[in-house]
Each structure stands twice: as C-alpha cells, then as structure tokens.
Amino acid sequence: MPTSSINRLLDRLEQHKNRFGRGETRRVEKVLGALARQQFADAKSLIRFHEALMFLRAFPQGPGVVARTERILDGFHQRVADLRALGTDMSPFDVYEVLGIAGTTMEDTLNFDAVRWLVRRIPRNVEIVWDGYEEERAMAATWPRFMPLVEEDGDVEANIPWRRWLDAARGRERELEWLVGRFELLPCSPREKVETYGSLRLPIRWRIENLPLSRTRSRWPTRAFYYHHEPLITRSQVSLERELAQPAPALRRVSLAEGRRVIDKIQEVMLVRYRELYGTTLGDPHSVVRANVGRGVVIYLWGLPPERRLPLRAYLAGFTVKNGVPINYIEAIGLDEWIEIGFNTFYTFRGGETAWIYAQVLRILNRYMGAKCISIYPYQIGDGNEEAIESGAFWFYRKLGFRPGRADLLRLCEREEHRIISEAGYKTPARTLRQLAKAHVFYELPGAERGAWDRFSTRNLCLRVNRLMAREFGGDSARMRRAAAEQVSRALGVSASGWSGIEQKAFENWALVLSLIPDLANWTAGEKADVARIIRAKLGRDEMRYIRLTQRHDRLRRELLRLGSGVEAYPGRDRAFSP
Asked: On the CB side of 80, how many CA atoms lie within 13 Å of its CA?
C-alpha cells in the first residue's frame, strides 16, 4: 500500500485511540488489522504506528485491542529490520522522543552503575565503541590499577596500543565484562568506583533487538485489565483539593524478589530513553512499596540503600504502570514536611490521564512521607529544560493549584491568566514561560504554614556550611568535620562512638548543620534526645521513619528554615562552635 494510504489509516487509528463507547473497540480492531497487513516503507510512518500501539496497549477499549496490540508489538523488531533492509533512512529512530524501539541500537556514555547493570543483564548485546575514542590520558591514569606494568608504556610512549593491552589482560573474557569486573574489585568506596570509571568516558553501544527491555515490549503480566469505555479523565476534571481529601491508597511492601524485579524494570525503562536518575540507578530493592490506585494504575516507590543516601534530605523514586505498561517516573526529595517532586510522563502517554495520576502520586506521598508543602523545582517547569517549555509544564501545575514562590512571578502569572481569559487565542510566549520557570512553585496542604518554605533550599544551608569552612577552617573539610562533631556531641550530651559506622557518618553530616545553631546547648533534654534519634534514623532501614521524626521537632524545623532561607535570626553569631 502506498505511504499516503498507510498514513490515512494511521490518522484513523490516532483518532480512534481517544474515542470510547459503543462500537469503538471493534473499530479500533479493524484499523489495527488493516495496518498489521501493511509493509511500511518509511521510518516516520512506522514510528507513528508504534506510538499509537503503545498508547492503545496502556489505554485499551477492550480485550481485543490488548491482544492485537501485543501481537503486533511482539513482532515489531522485524518491521524495523525490513525497513533497514530496504535502505531506508533510519535516523528518525534516533529522535529523543521515540528512542528504544525494538530492532534499534543505542549508544551513550553511561555511569558505572548503569554499565554494570547492562553487562549483567544483556552481556552479549553490549560493547565498547572504540571508533573515535581518544581518552588516552584517562586510560594511562586508570588502567595501572588492574594491568601490571602498563606504566612502562603509558607513562612515556606515544601511540600506545591500548586495546592490545586490554586483549592481553582480559584473556577470553569480553572487554566490557572484564573492565567492569576489575572496577568492582577495586578497594575503594562505591562513589570512588563511579568517579574512577567515569574518568574514562567510555561510549557504550547496546543492541535492543527484540529484548523485553525495549520500549516496544516493556510490560508486565497483568491479571486484571482496566478497559476504557468512557473518555479519559482530563486535567480540567481533576481537583487536587478533592483528591487529597480522600483517604490515601493502601501501600504494600513487596517481597525482596519482587523488589529486585521492580528495580530491574526501572533500569530498563530509563536506559532505553537515555535517562538516568539517581534513585532509578541506585534503587534499594528492600524498600519497594506498591499502591494500586484503580483504573489499571499501579504506583511503585522505593528509597536508596543507606550507603548511597543524601546527607540531609530523604529520597524516594518511583514509576507508574498502566495496565502493566510503564508510563512515567517519579522523584521525591524532602526534609520535614517539605518535599520537591519530579514527575515525568513519557511522550507516548501524555494524553493519558496525566493529571489524575499525578494527583494519586501526591496522595501517596502525603501519606508515606507526611508531605504538607509540595514544591516543584524550576527545571521541572522549564528552567534550562526546553522540553518543559514546549509542553507548557508551568500551566499544568498552575491549573492544578500551584503558585509561584516569588511575588514578582506570581504577579506575572496572574497577568498572563488575565490575558488568556480576555484575549481569544492568546498563548503564553516561550520567553514568558522561561521567566515563570525561574523559581519553585508550591502547593500547600491543609495545616501547612503558607509561604514558610518559599525561600528554603538545602543548597542555601549547605553553602552556608562551606562558607564557614572557608572562613574558620581554612578550607579544611576534615578539620571542620572533627570540630563540629566534637562540639555538637558536647552540646547534645551524646557520644556517637558507640554508634554503627553509617550512624557515625550521619552524625558527622548533621553536626555540620547543627554547629550553625548558637543556642543548641540550651535546648531541652527532650529536644536534644529527639535530635539524636533523628540522626540515627537517617541511615536506618526505613528512611521514611527519619523524615517523619523531623516533622515532630518544631525547634529543629524553625532552625532549618532559618538557615536554609537566609534568615539571620542571630546577627553576627552564624558561626560554628570554636574551631
């Protein structure tokens, strides 16, 4: 069939995928059957078909739609191969929005944790891309750690045959497997291994073929499907106030085996989209929880292993599956009742009940983390993020009830809202959206103190610590840590010497902040004991216990707000105890 005829069929499919009601299932099945019989001759049309299939698999009108989409998607790699055999331009498959289709190949410079996962998961499909690789200095600095006498060549010679050295050292083992294995054996911390491997900047290629980790086949077995017989829930139908007033969905901690499957799945989901998130790469399978929120939507959340946690904030990552299909990822980072949330729905599914699903995520986070002040960081709404500008992300949050945290941007927002209402066809220019994205936006739940966290940032707090280090400790981090730990121990009447190693690390980190509180020694015995309890919980089994404990300490909350908001409650006294 000519491309024009195929595109007309695709037009019909894209129209029907958002139509629901009597007879729609049969109409969709009929168009799917017609398209399944076609041989595609151009990449763009085949990609359109793929994306429509993916959406229909997640938001099906009936069981026949599920069966047909799965059958076509499971053989989709052959359609890509047929297109390549025709000599067709395959560059459209490399466009960011559609990466990860079965039958394609991907290439990127990944961090050590991601490469290690790939090598373990698909060892035969992943390799180093040596063409054009010229990081000789990095190899000369790194390879002596696991190649005897390589300095004899690397330190003084020119035109060093690095791959011959690698071939000699690895024997019959695959190049990348051998290198990853050597880095795993290095006698250093996980963070140091990541830094050392990262210095090599090795480009990695992995062939997706028809693997389940492709976007095309990325789905889990589903026991009970949710079929859409009525129109999807739109943003205008969603009220955060109403949704958050409902009882939170039940959370169930999954088994360790299921937790590992969840962490593996999010690795797949992110890698085939060239995305890396701290919590998706380093998720702790012991901490995975699951919530079934209805309409075929299941939300998974997890934390970080104790040794990879942030010094102060608690961290959760997660993702949503719709009828077994991964459709977004989630990040929540918080301290006390304040959390910053990242929420990204993948391109293919952005017409699919995004606002309602977002509301369910907030319901869960409100319960699980005790969140009362929801903050969206500027990048999420467009600061340095053109994808968010193009999608109008700022207005997505504003129409749900979020407000800019800066007074000048709130006034600009209100002027734009007036123009949208009064001027037919008016659309906010990209330059204005970029301006609106220069500060956080906030949503406060009932009981929250409005505006309390508008100026707060842990970055402000941590920079304060570093300025103090430069001023009073000559830039010596180790000396400052020792001094802060000693003085905070005396002020709290606590000795951390009997604590575990990771608890002592948490104490050192918190001591740097607590040392900025001049009257810490005057706190009540109960307040001091509660601070010690909070610190010990930071690297405990459940980091959510830690954040809930911080929410019960009013005095600590006031000091954190002061230090992280740039407020000088003690003029001239913002200094550590004596160095």
From this structure: 27
pLDDT tens digits along 567-578: 554 444 444 444
Tell me how far apart the alpha carbons of residues 318 and 288 are, in angstroms, rounded to a whole number: 9
Q: Which of 323, 310, 334, 321 is closest to 288 using CA atoms? A: 321
* CA 247/CA 293 separation, integer angstroms: 11
d(CA 370, CA 46): 46
Beta strands (DSSP E) in 162-269 are: 203-207, 252-253
Q: What is the pTM of this model?
A: 0.92
What is residue 447's predicted lDDT score, i.e. its pLDDT? 87
**Which among 411, 301, 413, 421 has a CA at the least distance from the CA of 365?**
301
Q: Are 201 and 108 in contact (CB under 8 A)?
A: no
Sequence-distant (6+) residues with CB within 8 A of 365 are 316, 332, 339, 341, 371, 374
Cβ-Cβ contacts under 8 Å for 118 (sequence gap 6 or more): 110, 126, 204, 206, 271
To 5 degrees, how large is the angle CA 289–CA 294–CA 299? 25
Side-chain-facing half-sphere of 481: CA atoms under 13 Å? 9
CB of 417 closer than 8 Å to CB of 373: no
Query: Whole-angstrom distance between the N-terminal and C-terminal Cα of the chain?
Result: 80
In the chain, where the domains are located? 3-93, 105-207, 235-444, 458-565
pLDDT computed for residue 2 by the predictor: 63
CATH 3.40.630 assigned to domain 235-444? The reply is yes
User: SS in 3 state form for 368-435?
Assistant: HCCCCEEEECHHHHCCCCHHHHHHCHHHHHHCCCCEECCHHHHHHHHHHHHHHHHCCCCCCCHHHHHH
Q: Which two tokens stand for residue 155?
A: 């330190």
Residue 441 CB coordination number (10 Å): 27
Residue 325 token pair:
């299909």
**What's the token pair of residue 309?**
């946690």
Residue 543 confidence (pLDDT) above 50: yes
Question: What would the pLDDT profile of 372-422 be if each residue is shown by its tens digit?
Answer: 999 999 999 999 999 899 989 999 999 999 999 999 999 999 999 999 999
